[in-house]
């Protein structure tokens, strides 16, 4: 499995790092959004819906928690 997480990275930073070499037009078509929407996600202007995050994770074999920048201790209920 690919690991999109970088320490203390947020969603936009992870998307920016992971998507630049990929075809934004193709991704946008598969997700039924505009290219500008993808660029807004990458630049932190907007955040993708949960369904889009799930779709991206399936498309690229990413872990959603890591894509979102969640650390293990943030995911556990104490």
Q: Secondary-structure blueprint of this entry?
A:
Layout: H1 11-18, H2 24-31, H3 35-42, H4 50-60, H5 64-67, H6 72-75
Tell me about this structure.
This protein has 78 residues and is mostly helical. Helices cover 55% and strands 0% of the residues. It contains 6 helices and no strands. The longest helix is centred in the last third of the chain and has 11 residues. The radius of gyration is 12 Å and the shape is globular. The mean pLDDT is 82.
Characteristics:
mainly alpha; 55% helix; single chain; 78 residues; globular
Rg over CA atoms, rounded to whole Å, is 12 Å
Structural class: mainly alpha
* Quaternary form: single chain
What is the tally of helical segments? 6
Low-pLDDT stretches are none
* Range of helix content: 55-70%
What is the string of SSEs from the N terminus onward? HHHHHH
What fraction of the residues are assigned to beta strands by DSSP?
A: under 5%
Distance between the termini: 28 Å
Shape by Cα distribution: globular
The biggest beta sheet, please? none
What is the number of E strands? 0
Overall pLDDT confidence? 82
Sum this structure up briefly:
This protein is mainly alpha-helical and 78 residues long. Helices cover 55% and strands 0% of the residues. The model has no long low-confidence stretch (mean pLDDT 82).
